[in-house]
């Protein structure tokens, strides 16, 4: 489209200029520095991440220290910052001290990404976001679901989240950009759910089984969301759950019972080689099943890249994901344009922290005649805060994905976020290193 | 390993390969029962005597197989002994090429071969497909290993002498296979023997003769002479006659400890006119334990323990039979396992949604059910899925706990979907229990502490130790497989040492000095 690249540059520069100065988040800047130290040392990164992963399973400071020193022992020539715990941890007093400090450190990190232990505890944070010009989607972190009781418990937590949010949001002040778009009203209350947590019967080679079992719990949540006026978003996970998730959602939403609500949506992962075909399938479904509130498609790059590649290599498969990051980035832009062009059949949410990807979506939306509220940009709590501030300042509709849960429940999520943040190829890492804006905004 | 690549598994999370497997199963069901004759040289003998049926639907006849008699055994050994030297004289490359063509034949037929295992052994699709891949791997790996071995080994050379070390085949190999890996394990035994120039007589398990036939057919189609690879279906008597025959040089066996020890005894009995001592390579039983430390990630432990214990109804020598959990997590683990077992699906092997298929035959079913009864009497059933199909050899997957110390259920192999759970005060206590076992096949530990991993690696006697993963599913060239103690004798199959079991080294040292002149 003529003028697209020029507009991307303009939008991108304008967004970057509105990033808050580092001084506003001193603690975060420290984290960022720590992350950069770690990014240069894969062995240190591995040790620290494995430590973070083990934290919730340690019952005493001594056990924490034991894990930390054992993991650091595997690092040759550790950076100065990490020599102290190793040495200190060998004395009895030091052992307790190191463990307590480490526990506090992990808790501090976790609190950056996890907004509260429960939906109720998260409310004040969500309201603060709303007042600052950003919506939210609440995500309930949990341990893996391996039993029917655990699936019931997760469904109950989702129900509680919907009830808590829909009870609280009417008191929030009006934010027109956040609650209205080309298709009509956009619910304030927004909850994301994972199908793999709604059933213990996810079997990649038998997708109907898990879909059937999860459906009885999902149907109750859909009814509740419809009646309470909340948006219920179905998350996407690894390829092993993809077919189960799509089967379930498309099948369930085809039921006339849900034609008039709730507002709901699915996720498409641009790193998947098959993503274009999946979008064909979803758009075709949308044509055949008109909804009062169009399906929202959250477009993401995908968070399971390492898992998908390692699993495929171990089994002798072609990885289902693009192995070059630029391929994912290009595909993300192509799919963005397709989904913007597919309006009004779908709503589009762009979930990325990559300034180029976001600027591209904003620019294309503008050229396609869309307003600032006709496209949504989604960021992750703790990772996209700067971008979120800048988008809010530009009055572009923004939503922050807010995980809720305790430390044990959140650890898998936290480790994934940390990996994402320190991957040397990640946008955030490049931005943190001070890569010039021209390079950050260059076409992938 | 230059050039060796594992055969890719089918990507069963996709619809297309699932549909192809179902088509292959329909084709198998539409054809009459397979005929598995005694194959001695180019001639086909009887194919009556054994009825191989579907464990999930016992009135479905899958194959009829012959029963090789003592005189069949004698004829086969005679044919093999006559042709083996010719096969041994062929270039290693030529033998490797024949094996690779055989592997290709299996690859072309992989859907049908998997379908056959689903019917003949009640082996679920993913496991059946993995078995076919492993068979292909064993054949190609053996070919590559034999080529490398043909170059001999480097020795120290000094002026005036030339030293060489090379390996020659031992002669005629009796390969006695199990039913649980009906294609893969016989393929490993047979292909390694053939690649090094031995002749092989395969006695497949009476429960899975058709898969044995398919292997022999593929090898012959690939170019292995009929006299060099023969098939003697039959019961234990056929195997015993083969083992006792003085013309057999090597016995490669995978199966129960009882049979394995009987083979070792019989093989030690050397005839007066026998010019060699028999060698036995035997892979036998196990009582495999998974240790769960207090810091383990139970999200990972639960599915991996269930897969290790109940996939293919626990009928793998590598399967988990015991969980030794740290007392700090034993209670939570027991609860989560109980809920997860209750969610498992016991059903037909041809259903992609099945978690636990039937066991192989009525005798197995009775053994497992009586072990469960004993467990309920001695201890407490803490997890069970009682919902099982009525017809077929199904057993409810069960976890038993609170057993008295030293209970037979924690010591003896059950070979079915029965797992015991014991709480321990520490990982070291768990290692003491593991060390007290006479078996040492596989084992596992779940922990996030590298020091604990080091200690378990140091103290565990098992042949294959798995850390933070399920303890079954060894892959050729990645996890060479085999047990220590009474779990087995011989080197690990699928690894670099295995091939040496099938050869005799010969060292030649030549004096190259003549009248003071050193000829290089």
Could you write a compact summary of the structure shown?
The complex is a heterodimer of chains A (444) and B (520). Chain A has 444 residues and is α/β, with parallel strands linked by helices. Chain A contains 19 helices and ten strands.
Structure description:
The complex is a heterodimer of chains A (444) and B (520). Chain A is an alpha/beta fold. Chain A has two domains: 41-111, no CATH class; 115-440, TIM Barrel (Alpha-Beta Barrel), CATH 3.20.20. Helices cover 56% and strands 11% of the residues of chain A. In chain A, strand 2 (180-181) and strand 3 (184-185) form a beta hairpin. Chain B has two domains: 20-284 and 487-506, Aldehyde Dehydrogenase, Chain A, domain 1 (3-Layer(aba) Sandwich); 288-467, Aldehyde Dehydrogenase, Chain A, domain 2 (3-Layer(aba) Sandwich). Chain B is built from 14 helices and 24 strands. Chain B has helices spanning 15-30, 70-89, 92-108, 110-121, 125-150, 184-195, 209-222, 236-244, 257-268, 298-310, 327-342, 362-378, 427-436, 450-459, and strands at residues 34-36, 39-40, 43-44, 49-54, 57-66, 161-169, 172-176, 199-203, 229-231, 250-254, 279-283, 288-292, 320-326, 380-384, 398-401, 418-424, 439-440, 442-446, 464-467, 484-485, 488-489, 503-511, 513-514, 517-518. In chain B, helix 14 links the parallel strand 18 (442-446) and strand 19. In chain B, helix 4 packs across helix 5. The A-B interface holds A 50, 53-54, 57-59, 63, 66-67, 70-71, 73-74, 143-144, 146-150, 200-201, 203-209, 239-240, 242-243, 315-317, 412 and B 5-9, 11-13, 15, 18, 125-126, 294-300, 302-303, 328, 336, 338-340, 342-343, 345, 351-353, 355, 448-451.
Topology:
The complex is a heterodimer of chains A (about 450) and B (about 525).
Chain A: H1 4-17, H2 26-39, H3 42-54, H4 61-73, H5 83-88, H6 92-113, H7 119-131, E1 135-140, H8 148-168, H9 176-179, E2 180-181, E3 184-185, E4 190-193, H10 207-228, E5 231-234, H11 239-253, E6 263-269, H12 275-288, E7 295-300, H13 305-315, H14 325-341, E8 346-351, H15 355-367, E9 376-380, H16 385-393, E10 398-404, H17 407-422, H18 427-432, H19 437-440
Helix pairs in contact in A: 1-15, 3-4, 3-17, 4-6, 6-17, 8-10, 10-11, 14-15
Chain B: H1 15-30, E1 34-36, E2 39-40, E3 43-44, E4 49-54, E5 57-66, H2 70-89, H3 92-108, H4 110-121, H5 125-150, E6 161-169, E7 172-176, H6 184-195, E8 199-203, H7 209-222, E9 229-231, H8 236-244, E10 250-254, H9 257-268, E11 279-283, E12 288-292, H10 298-310, E13 320-326, H11 327-342, H12 362-378, E14 380-384, E15 398-401, E16 418-424, H13 427-436, E17 439-440, E18 442-446, H14 450-459, E19 464-467, E20 484-485, E21 488-489, E22 503-511, E23 513-514, E24 517-518
Parallel strand pairs in B: 1-5, 7-8, 7-10, 8-9, 10-11, 12-13, 12-18, 13-16, 15-16, 18-19
Antiparallel strand pairs in B: 2-3, 4-5, 6-22, 11-21, 14-15, 17-20, 23-24
Helix pairs in contact in B: 1-4, 2-8, 3-5, 3-7, 4-5, 5-6, 10-11, 13-14
């Amino acid at each position: 489209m003529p003028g697209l690249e020029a507009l991307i540059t303009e939008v991108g520069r304008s967004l970057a200029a509105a990033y808050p100065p580092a001084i506003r988040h001193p603690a975060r800047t420290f984290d960022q520095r720590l992350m950069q130290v770690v990014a240069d040392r894969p062995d240190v990164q591995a040790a620290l991440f494995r430590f973070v992963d083990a934290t919730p399973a340690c019952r005493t400071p001594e056990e924490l220290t034991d894990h930390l020193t054992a993991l650091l022992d595997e690092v040759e020539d550790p950076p100065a910052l990490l020599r102290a715990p190793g040495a200190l941890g060998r004395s009895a007093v030091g052992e307790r001290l190191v463990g307590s400090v480490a526990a506090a450190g992990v808790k501090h990190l976790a609190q950056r990404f996890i907004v509260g232990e429960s939906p109720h505890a998260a409310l004040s944070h969500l309201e603060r976001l709303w007042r600052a010009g950003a919506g939210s989607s609440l995500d309930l972190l949990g341990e893996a679901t391996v039993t029917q009781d655990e699936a019931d418990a997760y469904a109950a937590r989702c129900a509680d989240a919907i009830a808590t949010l829909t009870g609280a949001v009417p008191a929030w002040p009006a934010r027109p950009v956040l609650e209205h778009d080309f298709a009509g009203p956009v619910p304030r209350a927004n909850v994301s759910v994972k199908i793999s947590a709604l059933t213990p019967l996810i079997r990649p080679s038998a997708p109907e089984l898990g879909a059937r079992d999860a459906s009885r719990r999902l149907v109750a949540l859909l009814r509740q969301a419809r009646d309470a006026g909340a948006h219920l978003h179905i998350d996407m996970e690894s390829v092993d759950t993809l077919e189960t998730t799509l089967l379930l959602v498309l099948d369930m939403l085809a039921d006339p019972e849900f034609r008039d609500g709730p507002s709901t949506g699915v996720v498409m992962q641009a790193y998947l080689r098959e993503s274009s075909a999946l979008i064909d399938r979803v758009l075709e479904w949308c044509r055949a099943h008109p909804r009062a509130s169009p399906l929202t498609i959250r477009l993401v790059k995908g968070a399971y890249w390492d898992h998908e590649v390692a699993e495929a290599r171990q089994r002798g498969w072609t990885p289902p994901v693009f192995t070059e990051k630029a391929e994912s980035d290009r595909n993300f832009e192509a799919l963005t344009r397709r989904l913007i062009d597919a309006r009004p059949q779908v709503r589009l949410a762009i979930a990325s922290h990559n300034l180029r990807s976001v600027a591209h979506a904003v620019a294309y939306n503008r050229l396609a005649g869309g307003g600032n509220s006709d496209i949504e940009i989604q960021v992750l709590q703790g990772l996209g805060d700067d971008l979120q501030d800048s988008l809010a300042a530009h009055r572009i509709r923004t939503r922050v994905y807010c995980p809720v849960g305790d430390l044990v429940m959140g650890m898998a999520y936290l480790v994934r976020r940390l990996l994402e943040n320190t991957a040397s190829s990640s946008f955030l890492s490049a931005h943190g290193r001070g890569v010039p804006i021209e390079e950050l905004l260059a076409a992938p | 390993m230059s050039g060796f690549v594992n055969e890719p598994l089918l990507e069963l999370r996709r619809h297309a390969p699932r549909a192809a497997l179902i088509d292959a199963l329909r084709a198998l069901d539409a054809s009459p029962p397979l005929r598995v004759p005694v194959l001695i040289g180019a001639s086909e003998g009887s194919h009556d005597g054994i009825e191989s049926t579907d464990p999930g639907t016992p009135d479905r006849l899958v194959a009829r197989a012959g029963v090789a008699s003592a005189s069949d055994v004698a004829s086969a050994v005679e044919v093999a002994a006559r042709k083996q030297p010719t096969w041994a004289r062929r270039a290693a490359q030529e033998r490797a090429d024949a094996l690779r063509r055989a592997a290709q034949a299996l690859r072309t037929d992989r859907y049908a071969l998997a379908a056959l295992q689903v019917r003949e052994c009640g082996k679920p699709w993913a496991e059946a497909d993995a078995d076919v891949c492993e068979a292909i791997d064993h054949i190609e790996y053996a070919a590559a290993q034999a080529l490398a071995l043909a170059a001999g080994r480097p020795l120290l050379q000094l002026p005036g002498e030339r030293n060489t070390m090379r390996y020659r085949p031992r002669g005629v190999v009796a390969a006695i296979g199990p039913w649980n890996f009906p294609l893969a394990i016989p393929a490993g035994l047979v292909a390694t023997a053939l690649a090094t120039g031995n002749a092989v007589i395969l006695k497949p398990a009476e429960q899975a003769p058709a898969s044995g036939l398919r292997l022999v057919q593929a090898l012959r189609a690939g170019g292995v002479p009929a006299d060099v690879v023969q098939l003697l279906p039959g019961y234990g008597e056929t195997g015993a006659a083969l083992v006792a025959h003085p013309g057999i040089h090597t016995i490669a066996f995978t199966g129960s400890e009882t049979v394995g020890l009987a083979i070792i005894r019989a093989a030690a009995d050397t005839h007066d006119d026998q010019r060699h001592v028999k060698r036995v390579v035997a892979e036998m039983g196990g009582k495999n334990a998974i240790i769960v430390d207090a810091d383990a990630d139970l999200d990972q432990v639960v599915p991996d323990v269930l897969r290790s214990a109940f996939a293919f109804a626990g009928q793998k020598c590598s399967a988990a039979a015991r969980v030794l959990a740290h007392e700090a997590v034993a209670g939570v683990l027991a609860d989560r396992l109980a809920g997860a077992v209750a969610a498992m699906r016991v059903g037909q092997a041809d259903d992609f949604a099945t978690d636990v298929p039937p066991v192989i035959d009525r005798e197995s079913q009775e053994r497992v059910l009586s072990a469960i009864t004993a467990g309920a009497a001695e201890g407490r059933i803490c997890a069970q899925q009682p919902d099982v199909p009525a017809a077929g050899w199904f057993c409810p997957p069960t976890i038993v706990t609170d057993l008295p110390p030293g209970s037979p259920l924690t010591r003896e192999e059950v070979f079915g979907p029965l797992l015991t759970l014991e709480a321990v005060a520490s990982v070291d206590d768990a290692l003491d229990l593991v060390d007290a076992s006479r078996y040492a096949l596989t084992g596992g530990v779940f922990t996030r502490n590298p020091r604990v991993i080091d200690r378990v690696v140091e103290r565990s006697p098992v042949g294959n130790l798995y850390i933070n993963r399920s303890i079954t599913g060894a892959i050729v060239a990645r996890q060479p497989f085999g047990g220590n103690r009474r779990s087995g004798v011989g080197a690990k199959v699928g690894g670099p040492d295995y091939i040496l079991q099938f050869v005799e080294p010969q060292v030649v040292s030549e004096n190259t000095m003549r009248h003071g002149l050193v000829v290089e």
